[in-house]
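name: query_chain
kind: protein
chains: 1
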Amino acid sequence: GDKLAAKRAMAAAGVPLVPGAELAEEVTAAELRDAGDRVGYPLLVKAAAGGGGRGMKVAQAPDQL
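structure:
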């Protein structure tokens, strides 16, 4: 399913969510660092579409983004 649409619907319904950030498909290193600073570390970085979880990476600190 569409994970972003589902998360948006749950947020609109007032369901508590895990902190996260939606970023553009093409994102700069500065935007990644800013998002990490807002959300907090460690971060699980993943694509919103496809892959079934493959390619997910953990960043423990900004230099690992």
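note: The mean pLDDT is 86.
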